[in-house]
Design a protein that fits this description.
Layout (H helix, E strand, L loop, with lengths): L23 E2 L28 E9 L14 H13 L1 E3 L2 E3 L3 E8 H10 L4 E5 L14 E7 L4 E7 L9 E7 L4 E7 L6 H15 L4 E6 L10 H6 L1 E2 L13 E2 L5 E3 L2 E5 L4 E5 L13 E7 L1
Parallel strand pairs: 2-5, 10-11
Antiparallel strand pairs: 1-8, 2-17, 3-4, 5-7, 6-7, 8-9, 9-10, 11-15, 12-15, 13-14, 16-17
Helix pairs in contact: 1-2
Length: 297
């Protein structure tokens, strides 16, 4: 286990990118979704009450759910669902075991999400797939991204990020009203060029906004990429240390060795966070999960 970054107060949040119109919003959310309620309305005088402090135990994981080379359980949805559910119930952060109450999943199938909903009673779930997303094995629907929270989700939005024609990645965002927190997940194409990735990062910052924010996923490139400048300017990444854009490696090669940091959790700078990535090989996927305890004041 990599030594986690200590829980420390972070600096006040910078302004996020302001133009959400750069990312066109999709018409609907696929399959399972939140309760359909609109996001909480702003107060007429523009001054919202100070939200209550909240602690979120978050996990992001590219679970490699496609039936393709490199995905150990892609052809066995039952086994993969069991592995993900077990990790949700017991993940390690800062040397202690915690149960996740928010998960961001990538390369996950609609059928997996149905299984998670049965296993995690009372959770809110939302799923979205790219317009030309791949199909999963054994009638499990399409491959996409998902958000699960132990508290109700509301105001879910599926957004296609800027991209070359026919290759638009999807971002899925929603509100957790009881946490006063906006949660988003995405997966970017690792073969995308830097110019498009920077446009996608700017669109993500605009979608996430400037309040309490938790978002991330598999962004397909190392943290040193200049394309991620909009995200590092506006937010804190849970595994960075000071100004350094670093963090534990999360993507594995065919031997199980960790070779690159490709997975991220970004949060509001006013939060405190402890973040961990397992030191051992993840046998269920070609990515290791990233888990964090986030304390919003």
């Amino acid at each position: 286990m990599r030594s986690p970054r200590a829980l420390i107060p972070l600096l006040s949040i910078c302004a996020a990118a302001a133009v959400v119109a750069a990312a066109a919003t999709g018409a609907s959310i696929e399959g399972l979704q939140g309760d359909g309620a609109p996001a909480p309305a702003a107060h007429a005088d523009g001054a919202a009450p100070r939200p209550e402090p909240v602690t979120i135990n978050a996990m992001t994981w590219n679970v490699c759910g496609g039936a393709e080379p490199g995905c150990p359980l892609g052809a066995d949805p039952g086994a993969l669902s069991k592995q993900v559910t077990q990790r949700m119930r017991a993940t390690e952060v800062g040397g202690r075991t915690v149960a996740a109450n928010a998960v961001l999943l990538q390369e996950v199938c609609e059928g997996h999400v149905r299984a998670f909903k049965k296993a995690a009673s009372g959770w809110g779930w939302a799923f979205a797939a790219p317009s030309k997303g791949a199909s999963c094995a054994q009638g499990q629907g399409r491959l996409g991204v998902a958000i699960g929270t132990e508290a109700p989700l509301a105001g879910m939005e599926r957004t296609e990020l800027p991209s070359p024609a026919g290759r638009a990645p999807v971002a899925l965002c929603g509100e957790v009203p009881s946490w006063t927190t906006r949660v988003c997940v995405t997966q970017l194409d690792p073969s995308g060029d830097a110019a498009w990735r920077r446009k996608q990062a700017s669109a993500l910052a605009a979608l996430a906004g400037t309040g309490r924010v938790l978002f991330g996923g598999d962004l397909g490139a190392a943290p040193e990429s200049p394309a991620f400048d909009p995200l590092y300017r506006a937010y804190e990444e849970c595994d960075q240390s000071g100004p350094s854009r670093a963090g534990a490696m999360t993507r594995q090669d065919w031997t199980g060795a960790a070779v690159e940091k490709a997975d991220y959790l970004f949060i509001t700078r006013s939060a405190a966070v402890s973040c961990s990535v397992p030191a051992e090989r993840a046998k269920a996927s070609d990515h290791r999960p990233m888990s964090a305890v986030i304390r919003f004041p």
